[in-house]
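Sample A.
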Amino acid sequence: MRASFILASLFAAAKVLSHPGADHAAEAAERAEYFKQHQVKRDLSHCAGKLDARGHTKRAIVRRQELYRSLQLAHGLENRAPSDINKSHHSDQDYDLHTPPELLFGTNNSCILSPEVILGPYYVAGEFVRKDITDDQRGVPLYLDTQVIDINTCDPVARTYIEIWHANATGVYSGVVAEGNGVESDQANLNRTYLRGIQPTDPDGISTFKSIWPGHYAGRTTHIHVIAHINATMLPNGTIMNTVASHVGQMYFDQSLIYEVEKYSPYTDNTQSLTLNAEDDILAQGAETSDPLMTWVYLGKEAKDGILAWLNFGIDTTIVSNLSAASFYYKDGGVTNPNPEPIVPPS
């Protein structure tokens, strides 16, 4: 019988009515202690050989290269090699027009992530299963490509649901009415769903999203939340109402790229202070044993043309985390959760 561990995300230090940049130390410490106690593998380095042998790495290289080309065509950009790419955060090589695709799209630094960190205070249960999560939001186009690997078997996790959410260009989350999240009196925000969505993984554990570059807010560096739902079921209204997960993580970007995007409108309208990667305690926790920064490439010559970012991350399918939702999105709209604290199971 498969072992199943229950981990309740402690929410006491990050209540729904707190600022999104609030102190999450208690929840972060509880999660870190749990994974220490259960000796959970924190990266995918042990899976590299098996992924290569079964052709998963090669297929990922080809698929991401084809995705890059198709996005260039969709945006009316020149069909060119991606020369304007940053130096990878795990590489000192300069990429140019002659960089082979197997290097650009197949580097191991995009295959060793398994960060388990806090859920954060603005999770909304009941989001739509959809690839395009932009709604009416303006910003630099961002295309996300993720692959999920079982850290115990080193096999891709197929037919599971990956959920992501992040703030808009001015640092505001949809679906939640709370102090510090935009205009607190704006009750209509409960019914907004921008920059939130869920996608099923294919047989290779792949899911993709179309979004915009996330904005920052006080106390946190630029990031995207990601969770994995095992054995979830889509409802007739096209949403998934599931408050358990086998992965709770966050994805990040190079500081140089953050600076670049922040130069453009509407990001320049963001009045909240910018927290750097080096100042973010939650990023530091995830980076202790893994690499939570996404690999990326410009679709054109500069960031404003659009960005393709990709990341592989591992999950332990024997772990189940209880999630505490700030609100729920039903077919008739959003409803604030009156009891956001999760029920802690008996020891």
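Sample B, a different protein:
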Amino acid sequence: MNEKDWLLLVTLNEEHNITKTAERLFISQPALSYRINKLEEEFKSKLFIRNRKGLYFTPQGDFLVKFAKKNDE
């Protein structure tokens, strides 16, 4: 993972929406979805739950967000 991935996780946690996160990070929605899938492959775990109300973190994803926020300080 790189610094952009940590920012991606924190922004997703704030927005709970792929489209809004992509807009904030100035990347395309397909590129963001691709990176999310690669992160899940890298960690061999489902990091997000997607539903009609938005995107939410699994316990594993929540752990990564907390780690990302801690490293940002």
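Observation for Sample B: The chain has a mean pLDDT of 90.
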